[in-house]
Amino acid sequence: MDAENILATVVFLLLEELQQITRHRRVILLRLIQDHTRPLYCRINLSVPVLDRFFNDDDTRPNFRLSRESVNMLLNHLKEDRRHCWGATIEVLVFAFWLASGASYRVVSRVFAIPHSTVHCIVQRVTEEVAAIRHQVIHLPRTPEDLHIVSHGFTELARHRAFLKAAGATDCCHVCIKPSSGPDGQCYRSRKLVPSIILQAVCDHQGRFIDTCVGWPGSVHDSRVLRNSPLYRQAISPPPGRFILAHGGYPCLQHPLPFITPYKRPVQCVGALRFNSHHSRARCIIERAFGMMKTRFRAIFLQTQEVHHTFVPHVITACAILHNICLGVGDVVAPEDEPEDDVQDEGEAGLEAGSGALWRDRLSAEVSALEEVPLDHDYC
């Protein structure tokens, strides 16, 4: 009886391996049939390990830091019909591999067995194409129902009903760059003396970016970036009666853009301490969003970018777009990066004219008067 079981197991394994070989040959045949109209130099080369694993339905995350669903969603958003022989799928894979690895163009060309100059053109072109769909993927809540869902999510994050009017959380993130030559090079050095470019972002209760502003040099204060951002200048969101959560480095405003910040340290009042605690619980979602994006694209955010500093904002915008696409299909990574310390300086005094301190005091009174909301939040 044991011999029969062993024989049956061996036969089953042999049949399974035969089926895999058959599927592999079928995929190769289909690719060859689809590519017969293309010149030989730009046909899909399945002898390249990266492409072989992708087209044989293996896990794409080790090579591209994106799930297969995320790659397909990105392709659906781009909807580009390549007229120059290179297929959209290959170009997106080259671009995603470059983002995930942070490798030089020369290394990527060796991985995909394509010319170095072609890799450069693909990365530049796909980055611009992804950045061009920004308003399709990164946008403010479009309906009152969407805004209500976001506000309710922040209520659960803060664990208090006083934050039912929260419509987003904002912060800034520094991306290291190669020092710029010329007299303006020192302008890019942050308070940590590292050359960087600033990404200002607003996210919803799930960590999805709803507004971004990128490109300011690292030496610029967060409040100045805010003052010159379209979000502040246009003041189209959030609607009246709602506010955005921000850290203590921003001014507390009621108009033109409602910003609610925590009380400055040191805090003596128990009510202010309680308000700061609930405020921090809700606002930390923006730090988590940055952490998820930095974890997925560690080579971009945790290493110095070798590309020209004028191209870095396009790369950062593309990363933010891919972050939203991944969250939309359930492709979530746990953040590994530690959040930065809150900046506690006063920022630019010019923003204090529309102070929202009275509004914050009312919210603090509500926090002291109302009970907490015992709800657990699902980040996904």
How would you describe the overall organization of this protein?
- It is a single chain.
- With 380 residues, the chain is of the alpha/beta class.
- The chain has two domains: 40-137, no CATH class; 144-341 and 349-371, no CATH class.
- Helices cover 49% and strands 9% of the residues.
- Strand 2 and strand 3 (209-217) form a beta hairpin.
- Helix 6 (105-112) crosses helix 7 (116-132) and helix 7 (116-132) crosses helix 14 (312-328).
| Helix/strand structural class | alpha/beta
Shape: globular
Quaternary organisation: single chain
Order of helices and strands: HHHHHHHHHEEEHHEEHHHH
Rounded to an integer, what's the Rg over CA atoms?
A: 25 Å
Helix content: 40-55%
How many discrete domains? 2
Number of strands: 5
N- to C-terminal separation? 50 Å
Summed up, the helix count is: 15
Poorly predicted runs are none
The proportion of residues in beta strands is 5-15%
Give the strand order of the largest sheet, numbering strands 1, 2, ... along the chain.
3-2-1-4-5
Q: For the report, how would you describe the main beta sheet?
A: 5 strands, mixed
Q: Roughly what is the average pLDDT, rounded to an integer?
A: 82
Domain DDE Tnp4: 171-324
InterPro entries: HARBI1-like, HARBI1_dom
Subcellular location: Nucleus
Cofactor: a divalent metal cation
Summarize the structure.
Belongs to the HARBI1 family. InterPro entries: HARBI1-like, HARBI1_dom. By secondary structure, the chain is α/β, with parallel strands linked by helices.
